[in-house]
Amino acid sequence: MSTQPTPPTPPRELPAKALDTTAEHPWPVRLLSTKIADYIDRMAPVWVEGQVVQLNRRSGAGMAYLTLRDTDVDMSLSVTLYARVLAQVTAPVEEGAHVVIHAKPTFWAKRGTLQLHASELRAVGVGELLARIEHLKRLLAAEGLFDAERKVGLPFLPGRVGLICGRNSKAEHDVVVNARARWPQVAFEIREVAVQGASCVPEVTRALSELDADPTIDVIVVARGGGSVEDLLPFSNETLVRAAAACLTPLVSAIGHETDTPLLDLVADYRASTPTDAAKRIVPDVATERAGLNQARQRMRGALTHRVAVEQDRLTTLRSRPVLADPTTLVTTRAEGLARYRAGARVAFGNRVERAHAEIATLRTALRTLSPDATLQRGYAVLRTPKGAVVRSPADVAVGQHLQALVARGDLGVVVEHLGAVRGAG
Q1: Cα gap 13→394, rounded to integer Å
Q2: Across-strand partners of 80?
Q3: DSSP calls for 31-90
Q4: pLDDT tens digit string along 112-138?
Q5: Per-residue pLDDT tens over the stretch 368-392
Q6: Phi, psi angle pair for 360, to nearest 5°
Q7: CA gyration radius, the chain
Q8: Which residues fall within 8 angstroms of residue 225, CB to CB, at 6 or more apart?
Q9: Domains of the chain and any CATH numbers
Q10: What three-state secondary structure class fits 403?
Q11: Which of 242, 275, 314, 319 could link 171 by a cystine bridge, Cβ 3.0 to 4.6 Å?
């Protein structure tokens, strides 16, 4: 019995678009890789700037491979180029150099990797980098990031110091040793990072953010020893400078030597010329402070002694006055004055009384002399009519008229018997 051959299974129809794929109808890897490669192959060449972090020259293959890294964030791309393209660059290209490449994105479908194939490479010279830094400096200054009003004072005695420095670097040794020589109890929170190269900016920025978020850190020091202009370029990076400007904790920049002025120095709250200078600035010298304290005590003691002596002299002067030497003097003097006033008042009052007595005697004598009773005592009489009128002239009465005669010791009734002649007034 013969068997018939099984007909071949017809090929499965694949979805035309990515949106049409499902779990039952997926794309195979080869199809996706091919489509990605076709899509990327349609992209035009582009100029890209970055920093060379890895460089591998393969003379036998005539190719060179490098990794181009962004200077601000942790992103990189692989780059391939012919060795002759690299040889045409006039300036030496080493790891850490800033370059600009003209490259076309390519996708290697077999491994699913994206890379750039460079047809031209140009080194960015130090002069151009410094010109860019100067331009950035003007922009940041216009924003006010370097203004003195933004800077805050450093604490007199920080409880804990955050230190950002290189791994096992001399800058770390200078800061820690000199600070502890001045104040042995000072504590450090050290972050060892790359202080040059492509990873410098992200590592320093991350360490700065971590220390600024720590509430126990009172001051932060970024320290690095001297170096070439290229080595110090990361400390003028815009990302790092803006991170330092946003730092709330007081910041000290101690980068390079006194003549080096990266932009981090301008935005920091205090610029130290060297790491040793930073150590002298962040903590006080305990010996100097103790000497100053002793001097202050001596000045206070001298001032207090002088003040007590002055006040004692014043008290002695006051006690030497008669009124304080004999406290009864004031009362005695007042009593004597009061006695004088009383004696004078008594004499004046006696004299006044005597004069009044004399005046009264004179008035009594005059009164007695002018009194009608005194006239009657001398034998005179006063005649009155029955109506009480005083008889002053014979013409006032008639013969036979009854009158009353007032004498010194009584009165008499009399009758007019005759009338005499009337005397003229004269």
Answers
A1: 189
A2: 65, 117
A3: HHHHHHHHHHHTSPPEEEEEEEEEEEEETTTTEEEEEEE-SSSS-EEEEEEEHHHHHT-S
A4: 888 899 888 887 766 677 777 888 889
A5: 777 777 777 777 888 888 888 888 8
A6: -65, -40
A7: 64
A8: 166, 169, 170, 171, 256, 275
A9: 19-124 (2.40.50.140), 130-284 (3.40.50.261), 373-412 (no CATH)
A10: strand
A11: 275
